[in-house]
Task: structure prediction
Amino acid sequence: MAVAEPAVRALPSPRWRPTPPVASLRRLMARSRRADLVAASLFVVATAIALLGPLVAPHNPLAAGPYENVPPFHGSNLLGTDAIGRDVLSRVLYGIRTSWFSALAVIASGVVIGGAVGLAAGAAGGWVDGLLMRTTDAFLALPGPIIAICVVAALGPSLRNTLIAVGIVWWPFYARIVRGEITALSARPHLEAAKLAGVGPVRRALRHLLPGAVPAIVVTASLDVANLLVTLAGLSFLGLGSPEPAPELGAMAAQNLQYLLSDWWEPVMPALAIFLLAMAANLGGDGIRNLLRRS
Amino acid sequence: MVQLVVRRLLAAVAIIVFLTLALFGLEHLSHTSPVHSYLGAGASAAAVAAETHKLGLDRPIVDQYFHYLNDLLHGNLGVSYRTRRPVTTDIGQFLPATAELAIYAMGLALVLAVVLGIAGAARWRGAGIFRFVMLAGSSTPPFLLALLGILFFSGKLGWLPATGRTGILNAPTGPTGLLTLDGLIHGRISVTLDALRHLILPATCIAFIPAVSVGRILRSSLDETLQRDHVRTARVKGLSEWAILVRHALRNSLGPALSMTGLQAGLMFAGVVVIEEIFAWPGIGNYVAQGIPQGDFPAIAGVTLILSIAYVAINAAVDIAQAIADPRIKL
Result:
């Protein structure tokens, strides 16, 4: 009588490592639809424009030129000039750099702070989890943008303070998501195996739990960039950013509002730039989500 | 059920207490000193000392916090640096305009959301377009909509006014403070119509982003419901696609959309501030926008507190309503 093979597979050894990123990227490319890749690459395109735009800007964004209120597509000013003769295109290109990297900076701070809080809460459990998550809930239960306005009003308006304020209201969202992922992962057998193999709690959290939460974080963060672009532009519109004459898209729209009915391009062009940037981020985020979902 | 409601309400109160602590802390971090804001930069040392004592700033910090809480409970939010009037008086004056704008914006957002959600989920040729509109909508800053709206409907076509709440000089000021209602109460239909004309552009600009977010949630939740067995049964029965959507799928799919509506109310407030500034709308959003360049912290903190309480209350109400409507939900 043949003895049935035990249906238990060998548990992954504690030496097991996640697939190196390059190999998984190659596998991804092979399987995915091309459209999603193109969409996801919009992030690279937007970053390139933000980085290189100011280098190809035809004029100095702060210098007043000889011709004021030139409409778009006239002469050397592709998007026209503003009320004191500054080149709108050059100002928009510099504004895109500020907007894009501001949004990425807030996302990065949200991922780091929220990720750390979520990881600590999910991995530790017990009263640490309770304390951290109740604090997170309190933040989430308040209207973020209004609180951010209030924080900047207290700290004094400047781009740095605006980023700090938005960072303060933005991380709890990430803490929730990371904590959810970590709690789900904690119940998986590889964690039990690691525990039995004598892996310490810190190493368990960092090497055995954190990598599993990375895809969820990447998807959330990439879909969040557009929200931040729009929110930050709104705050900049209200004067919560760098002071004039710094080229910021929201502030440009606000300062040129008075010329809307005579020289529409002065307020509309920067607002359109925000829209296009946010649209690229939304399409890119959708692409990244589809790619990761499929793999 | 009672226990559930009590727990949700206690949580709401705890959040407000947390907020008062945060606002109190921010006031102390604030870069503008209240004493100098009220007295001016050139005040004498004696006057500064007297004002510091009057404001209670020389007392222990814990003492100050309880003093602050006591003030809040008595409706005292401090004095605005800019208008030099009590913040409570200012908010009382500007709140009705914002309430009217927000009510119409929210109503419009819900209608738009249901239209977008259904049109995006239904099986028809235009669904793709509606999905694209929703994607584009979530990328649009409210001020871009406002600029384009003013440019076309006010500037080019001259159909709609671009500033203020009313063009009528002796418009009624009571009893509700909502012009569209007061016009009806006083039997002056022209006031109501004029107020509605003034509401169209700003309310649409504010409504668009929440409409799109709620519409997206509703669409994906409808998509999910349409995969269920009872929908297949309805299709087999030969019901029209429209009847299936509206009679058999919509109600089951409203839950997530409702939660999203509550959350979007918070984001909407930020839009209100920007839109009120653009349209010179005499509401608390504009009050905040005017206060920002002057560092008017008491005014901004007061509005933050009022709006946050409204937001927490709305979300508590949404949660409780959902728990009552759907017994599977546990708070």
Notes: Chain A touches chain B through 48 residues (CB under 8 Å). The mean pLDDT of chain A is 82. Chain A has one domain: 30-294.
